[in-house]
Amino acid sequence: TTNDNGDSSESGVQVYQSGSNWSITDHTATGNDRSGINVPSGDAGLIERANLSENRQFGLEALTDGDWTLRDSLVLNNDEDGVYDSNTASSFLVDNVTIRGNGHDGVYLLDNSGDWQILNSVIENNGATDSTDRPGAGIDAERTSGSWAVNNTSITGNDGAGIYAVDGPFPYGDATDNWWGQSSGPTSEQCVGNVD
What we know:
This protein is 0% helix and 36% strand. The strands form two sheets. Strands 1, 3, 4, 6, 7, 9, 11, 13, 14, 16 and 17 form an eleven-stranded parallel beta sheet that branches. An eight-stranded parallel beta sheet has the order 2-5-8-10-12-15-18-19, with no helix packed on it. It is mainly beta. The radius of gyration is 15 Å and the shape is globular. The termini are far apart.
Protein backbone atom coordinates (compact mmCIF):
# COMPACT_ATOMS: atom_id res chain seq x y z
CA THR A 1 0.00 0.00 0.00
CA THR A 2 1.23 3.50 -0.86
CA ASN A 3 -0.87 6.28 0.64
CA ASP A 4 -0.55 10.05 1.05
CA ASN A 5 2.86 10.46 -0.52
CA GLY A 6 4.23 13.93 -0.75
CA ASP A 7 3.26 17.50 -1.21
CA SER A 8 5.53 17.96 -4.26
CA SER A 9 4.00 15.91 -7.08
CA GLU A 10 4.94 12.52 -5.68
CA SER A 11 3.17 9.37 -6.89
CA GLY A 12 2.47 6.23 -4.92
CA VAL A 13 4.56 4.03 -7.24
CA GLN A 14 6.86 5.12 -10.05
CA VAL A 15 8.12 2.57 -12.59
CA TYR A 16 11.50 3.51 -14.10
CA GLN A 17 12.68 0.61 -16.21
CA SER A 18 14.15 0.37 -19.69
CA GLY A 19 13.57 -3.37 -19.89
CA SER A 20 10.36 -5.36 -19.87
CA ASN A 21 8.13 -7.70 -17.91
CA TRP A 22 7.46 -5.59 -14.83
CA SER A 23 4.33 -6.13 -12.76
CA ILE A 24 2.42 -4.56 -9.86
CA THR A 25 -0.10 -6.87 -8.20
CA ASP A 26 -2.50 -6.53 -5.24
CA HIS A 27 -1.55 -2.91 -4.58
CA THR A 28 -3.51 0.00 -3.13
CA ALA A 29 -2.37 3.55 -4.00
CA THR A 30 -4.60 6.27 -2.59
CA GLY A 31 -4.33 9.90 -1.57
CA ASN A 32 -0.99 10.53 -3.30
CA ASP A 33 -0.03 14.03 -4.40
CA ARG A 34 0.25 13.12 -8.11
CA SER A 35 -0.72 9.63 -9.30
CA GLY A 36 -1.43 6.29 -7.74
CA ILE A 37 0.95 4.64 -10.23
CA ASN A 38 3.18 6.61 -12.62
CA VAL A 39 4.90 4.72 -15.47
CA PRO A 40 7.31 7.03 -17.32
CA SER A 41 9.27 4.13 -18.91
CA GLY A 42 9.33 0.37 -19.32
CA ASP A 43 7.68 -2.17 -21.60
CA ALA A 44 5.41 -5.20 -21.25
CA GLY A 45 4.03 -4.08 -17.91
CA LEU A 46 1.11 -5.60 -15.99
CA ILE A 47 -0.95 -3.99 -13.23
CA GLU A 48 -3.60 -6.24 -11.73
CA ARG A 49 -5.87 -6.26 -8.70
CA ALA A 50 -4.96 -2.66 -7.90
CA ASN A 51 -6.97 0.05 -6.17
CA LEU A 52 -5.93 3.45 -7.57
CA SER A 53 -8.28 5.88 -5.88
CA GLU A 54 -8.56 9.40 -4.48
CA ASN A 55 -5.18 10.57 -5.77
CA ARG A 56 -4.77 14.29 -6.38
CA GLN A 57 -4.20 13.97 -10.12
CA PHE A 58 -4.46 10.56 -11.80
CA GLY A 59 -5.12 6.97 -10.83
CA LEU A 60 -2.73 5.55 -13.45
CA GLU A 61 -0.39 7.85 -15.36
CA ALA A 62 1.23 5.96 -18.26
CA LEU A 63 3.76 8.18 -20.03
CA THR A 64 5.74 5.31 -21.54
CA ASP A 65 5.72 4.31 -25.21
CA GLY A 66 5.88 0.70 -24.04
CA ASP A 67 2.93 -1.67 -23.84
CA TRP A 68 0.96 -2.19 -20.65
CA THR A 69 -2.09 -3.97 -19.24
CA LEU A 70 -4.43 -2.90 -16.41
CA ARG A 71 -6.64 -5.76 -15.23
CA ASP A 72 -9.13 -6.60 -12.46
CA SER A 73 -8.72 -3.21 -10.78
CA LEU A 74 -10.50 -0.14 -9.37
CA VAL A 75 -9.77 3.44 -10.49
CA LEU A 76 -12.05 5.64 -8.41
CA ASN A 77 -12.51 9.30 -7.44
CA ASN A 78 -9.16 10.68 -8.56
CA ASP A 79 -9.14 14.48 -8.81
CA GLU A 80 -8.32 14.66 -12.53
CA ASP A 81 -8.33 11.64 -14.90
CA GLY A 82 -8.69 8.01 -13.88
CA VAL A 83 -6.27 6.67 -16.52
CA TYR A 84 -3.97 9.12 -18.32
CA ASP A 85 -2.03 8.05 -21.44
CA SER A 86 -1.68 11.13 -23.63
CA ASN A 87 0.74 11.83 -26.48
CA THR A 88 2.42 8.41 -26.39
CA ALA A 89 2.75 5.49 -28.82
CA SER A 90 1.87 2.87 -26.21
CA SER A 91 -0.45 -0.02 -26.97
CA PHE A 92 -2.47 -1.20 -24.01
CA LEU A 93 -5.30 -3.35 -22.67
CA VAL A 94 -7.76 -2.40 -19.92
CA ASP A 95 -9.78 -5.48 -18.90
CA ASN A 96 -12.34 -5.85 -16.10
CA VAL A 97 -11.63 -2.45 -14.57
CA THR A 98 -14.09 -0.10 -12.86
CA ILE A 99 -13.29 3.56 -13.63
CA ARG A 100 -15.75 5.71 -11.71
CA GLY A 101 -16.18 9.18 -10.26
CA ASN A 102 -12.95 10.74 -11.51
CA GLY A 103 -12.89 14.53 -11.68
CA HIS A 104 -12.45 14.92 -15.43
CA ASP A 105 -12.09 12.04 -17.91
CA GLY A 106 -12.32 8.40 -16.94
CA VAL A 107 -9.67 7.56 -19.56
CA TYR A 108 -7.68 10.36 -21.24
CA LEU A 109 -5.90 9.41 -24.48
CA LEU A 110 -5.37 12.65 -26.40
CA ASP A 111 -2.92 12.13 -29.32
CA ASN A 112 -2.18 8.50 -28.42
CA SER A 113 -0.87 6.68 -31.52
CA GLY A 114 -0.80 3.08 -30.24
CA ASP A 115 -3.39 0.33 -30.59
CA TRP A 116 -5.59 -0.19 -27.55
CA GLN A 117 -8.58 -2.07 -26.14
CA ILE A 118 -10.95 -1.53 -23.22
CA LEU A 119 -12.94 -4.70 -22.48
CA ASN A 120 -15.41 -5.98 -19.86
CA SER A 121 -15.22 -2.80 -17.81
CA VAL A 122 -17.37 -0.13 -16.14
CA ILE A 123 -16.74 3.54 -16.98
CA GLU A 124 -19.27 5.72 -15.22
CA ASN A 125 -19.98 9.01 -13.49
CA ASN A 126 -16.74 10.70 -14.51
CA GLY A 127 -16.31 14.43 -15.07
CA ALA A 128 -18.67 15.94 -12.54
CA THR A 129 -16.15 17.77 -10.34
CA ASP A 130 -13.77 19.47 -12.82
CA SER A 131 -15.35 22.46 -14.56
CA THR A 132 -12.20 24.06 -16.00
CA ASP A 133 -12.49 22.35 -19.41
CA ARG A 134 -15.21 20.80 -21.56
CA PRO A 135 -17.35 18.26 -19.71
CA GLY A 136 -15.37 15.18 -18.79
CA ALA A 137 -15.82 12.10 -20.96
CA GLY A 138 -15.87 8.46 -20.05
CA ILE A 139 -13.13 7.96 -22.65
CA ASP A 140 -11.44 10.91 -24.38
CA ALA A 141 -9.91 9.45 -27.55
CA GLU A 142 -9.51 12.78 -29.31
CA ARG A 143 -6.93 12.74 -32.14
CA THR A 144 -5.91 9.14 -31.47
CA SER A 145 -4.43 7.50 -34.57
CA GLY A 146 -4.07 3.80 -33.75
CA SER A 147 -6.60 0.99 -34.01
CA TRP A 148 -8.88 0.76 -30.98
CA ALA A 149 -11.89 -1.06 -29.55
CA VAL A 150 -14.16 -0.66 -26.54
CA ASN A 151 -16.37 -3.74 -26.11
CA ASN A 152 -18.57 -5.38 -23.45
CA THR A 153 -18.29 -2.29 -21.28
CA SER A 154 -20.87 -0.22 -19.39
CA ILE A 155 -20.41 3.49 -20.24
CA THR A 156 -22.99 5.55 -18.36
CA GLY A 157 -23.52 8.70 -16.33
CA ASN A 158 -20.44 10.58 -17.52
CA ASP A 159 -20.71 14.38 -17.48
CA GLY A 160 -19.80 14.68 -21.17
CA ALA A 161 -19.69 12.03 -23.88
CA GLY A 162 -19.27 8.37 -23.07
CA ILE A 163 -16.67 8.22 -25.85
CA TYR A 164 -15.29 11.46 -27.33
CA ALA A 165 -13.28 10.56 -30.45
CA VAL A 166 -13.25 13.62 -32.69
CA ASP A 167 -10.45 13.84 -35.26
CA GLY A 168 -9.76 10.17 -34.70
CA PRO A 169 -8.72 7.24 -36.91
CA PHE A 170 -10.13 5.97 -40.15
CA PRO A 171 -11.67 3.45 -40.20
CA TYR A 172 -13.58 4.38 -37.09
CA GLY A 173 -12.91 2.96 -33.66
CA ASP A 174 -15.01 -0.04 -32.62
CA ALA A 175 -17.45 0.70 -29.77
CA THR A 176 -19.89 -2.15 -30.30
CA ASP A 177 -21.56 -4.44 -27.74
CA ASN A 178 -21.51 -1.90 -24.92
CA TRP A 179 -24.19 -0.77 -22.46
CA TRP A 180 -25.04 2.94 -22.67
CA GLY A 181 -27.88 3.06 -20.16
CA GLN A 182 -30.68 2.24 -22.60
CA SER A 183 -31.48 -0.72 -24.84
CA SER A 184 -31.57 1.47 -27.96
CA GLY A 185 -27.81 2.03 -27.83
CA PRO A 186 -25.85 5.28 -27.48
CA THR A 187 -27.33 8.69 -28.13
CA SER A 188 -25.47 11.15 -30.35
CA GLU A 189 -24.26 12.93 -27.21
CA GLN A 190 -22.89 9.72 -25.67
CA CYS A 191 -20.82 8.58 -28.65
CA VAL A 192 -19.11 11.48 -30.45
CA GLY A 193 -16.69 11.48 -33.38
CA ASN A 194 -15.07 8.63 -35.28
CA VAL A 195 -16.80 5.78 -33.53
CA ASP A 196 -18.59 2.81 -35.09
